[in-house]
Amino acid sequence: MNINGIPRQSIWWNEAEEQVYLFDQRTLPYAIEEKPIRSHEEAATAIRDMWVRGAPLIGVTAAFGMYLASVEAQSEKDSVAYMKRAQATLLATRPTAVNLPWALQRLEPIWREQVIEAWPKALLEEALKIREEDIAQSKAMGEHGLALIKALYQESGRPVQIMTHCNAGWLATVDYGTATAPMYLAHEAGIPIHVWVSETRPRNQGFSITAFELDAAGIPHTMLVDNAAGLLLQQGKVDLVLVGSDRTTANGDVANKIGTYLKALAAHASGVPFYVALPSSSIDFTMASGQEIPIEERSAAEVKTIQGYTAAGRQTVALTPPNSPAVNYGFDITPAAYVTGLITERGVCPASAEGLATLFPEKYPADAR
Questions:
Q1: Which residues have a Cβ under 8 Å from the Cβ of 134 and sit 6 or more positions away?
Q2: Contact, 195 vs 149, CB < 8 A?
Q3: Element (H, E) at 181
Q4: Which CATH number fits the domain that encloses residue 338?
Q5: What is the pLDDT of residues 188-222, one digit of tens each?
Q6: Are residues 222 and 317 in the same domain?
Q7: Contact 152, 189 (CB under 8 A)
Q8: By CB neighbour count within 10 A (0-12 exposed, 13-18 middle, 19+ buried), where does 264 fall?
Q9: How far is CA 170 from the centre of its chain?
Q10: CB of 302 within 8 A of CB of 202?
Q11: In the chain, which end has fewer C-beta atoms inside a 10 angstrom radius, N or C?
Q12: Low-confidence winner among 119-128, 291-300, 357-366 (lowest mean pLDDT)
């Protein structure tokens, strides 16, 4: 995807410097800051403090974090113990997105089974492989989702009205995105679309990141406050709701940014299809339902304040009475019954164990279906 007309990706390896870089997304859309990640602790900070966010990108960042830990471990007396602590540090940063433990588990056999001296090269190669797989998966999801958008356009003959939530764009992955990938490919294919972008309080990822991405790509879009989404769906101004997922369970229940469930309810009541785009790394085949998913509760300060830019730079402004408590759940669960379908790198399927089994038969033994 592009920033100021220049193709960019959200996280990359600078071979000349032998250094991992990423964008600090907290400063978007007003400032574009590239940050080097020099240690596994910095990788953990980047995930926990949301320099990066989005389940796929969290997983890739964690993979690079373990590579950095392996470099640090070379000078440690007990290198294996050091890697265990690094893994635990990264794992503790964000509890809901399953891509985080998925990536850490994928890398674990390398540092447990290979000789210490081989760790950095092998872990870097695996982190880069995960990164490239993420790009390929996002593009494949885009192609499968494009078919849905194309069908809606052929049926109506007018621009397809798409509603999304939070940011499931290229800045939530390495490139293309999950929910936005079909939008980008539709735009490139000349299919007219318009995207409704909700603010996504309390951190406003819709306004600050999704709108930034769509503007850079030249895709028509309109921002709206979160509570206006139901009205637009009720009035028939939306043809399709398309969101991402931080963790989807074996029965098709979806955990995504707080507010997703309300959109799903409104879409269901209004007869609007509600699709979730996600790579297989965001599917937790070990969890039977969404009731098992841990819901991250973040600082109340995110609710009680808001950040913006003035002539003096980035400012934080208080919104609420100082002594009033606030709760800040980061995610909610959308039951599979309200999900029209899941868009994965292998295709589109119903949000159910039976549907997922058609795309991922290796995860659903025949005698258990």
A1: 56, 57, 59, 60, 173, 174, 175, 279, 281
A2: no
A3: helix 181-188
A4: 3.40.50.10470
A5: 999 999 999 999 999 999 999 999 999 999 999 99
A6: yes
A7: no
A8: buried
A9: 9
A10: yes
A11: C
A12: 357-366
pTM above 0.70, yes or no: yes
165 and 181 belong to one structural domain? yes
Give burial (CB, 10 Å; 0-12/13-18/19+) of 190: exposed
pLDDT at 366: 67
Structural domain that includes position 275: 135-368
Same domain for 220 and 95: no
**97 and 224 fall within a common domain:** no
Active-site residue, from 239, 246, 284, 332: 246
Q: Which residue from 335, 325, 255 is spatially nearest to 295, judged by alpha carbons?
A: 255
Cβ-based burial of 43 (10 A; exposed 0-12, middle 13-18, buried ≥19): buried
- The pLDDT assigned to 367 comes to 54
**Number of independent structural domains in the chain:** 2
Question: 340 with 273: CB under 8 angstroms?
Answer: yes
Do residues 225 and 355 both lie within one domain? Answer: yes
Contact 116, 56 (CB under 8 A): no
Q: Which of 100, 133, 166 is the last residue of a domain?
A: 133
* Measured CA distances, 179 to 27, 121, 155, 164 (Å): 22, 33, 21, 8
What are phi and psi for residue 32, nearest 5 degrees?
Answer: -110, 110
The CATH number of whichever domain residue 76 belongs to comes to 1.20.120.420
* 106/144 same-domain check: no
Q: 143 with 103: CB under 8 angstroms? A: no
DSSP conformation letters of 266-277? HHHHHT--EEEE
Annotation says 49 is catalytic: no
Neighbours of 326 (CB within 10 A): 14
Nearest 10 degrees: Cα torsion 220, 246, 315, 211: 0
Residues 58 and 172 occupy one common structural domain = no
